[in-house]
Amino acid sequence: RTIPEAVMGGVSIALFGVIAAAGTRLFVEAKVNFSEKRNLMLASVIMVLGVGGAKLHLGSFELDQMTLATAAGILLNLVLPRPAAQPAAEKPAEAARC
Fold this sequence. Notes:
Elements: H1 5-29, H2 37-52, E1 56-58, E2 61-63, H3 65-79, H4 92-97
Antiparallel strand pairs: 1-2
């Protein structure tokens, strides 16, 4: 006996939906600013490569979609310039003492 394809399809949809929702929750809780082009580019490339089924063949060596997405994310994180650090705003209590 095997599990029917329709049941496996439904379970797969639920499983991957929960994984996607958990990932999205991490972005929200970490307060990732997607108005910064760097953050948007990193997340976009990783998601497209991971979900899109991209593969890289180098001779007999192959990188599947998840490995390729991970490697691309690490490389882009190292290569893309970070925004210039802005000085922190003074706290109202400190400004009042001056």
